[in-house]
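Tokens as discussed.
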């Protein structure tokens, strides 16, 4: 089964209010990539601790499968991807490694994630 993984940009985009969010969520649900996966390291980039600004992200997280553990093999794989790509943050690399094999990452930062995905096992990067 192909997974859909959200980085902080993908999570923020889904958290935006309005009709586009609902349309995007419906499209993703029909594509059988639901629920999206969110590694907990993405929460560190997406949440501020301010209830007013975090409310929309928290609503989206209720739809998601939050991955609470970064295993040693996953962390090692992310390190390899970063070294091979020569760019991207540790969080970006963990997001791409989480999507392996055959998953899709929704992001606002296609440059770094695409560089990482070029060395990953069949990971697609999609801008939202």
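Sequence:
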């Amino acid at each position: 089964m192909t997974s859909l993984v959200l980085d902080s940009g993908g999570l923020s985009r889904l958290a935006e209010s309005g009709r586009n969010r609902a349309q995007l969520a419906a499209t993703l649900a029909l594509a059988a990539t639901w629920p999206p996966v969110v590694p907990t390291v993405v929460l560190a980039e997406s949440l501020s601790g301010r209830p007013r600004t975090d409310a929309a992200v928290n609503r989206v997280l209720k739809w998601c499968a939050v991955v609470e553990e970064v295993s040693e093999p996953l962390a090692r794989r992310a390190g390899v991807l970063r070294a091979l790509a020569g760019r991207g943050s540790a969080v970006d690399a963990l997001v791409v490694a989480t999507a392996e094999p055959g998953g899709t990452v929704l992001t606002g930062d296609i440059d770094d994630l695409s560089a990482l995905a070029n060395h990953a096992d069949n990971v697609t990067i999609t801008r939202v």
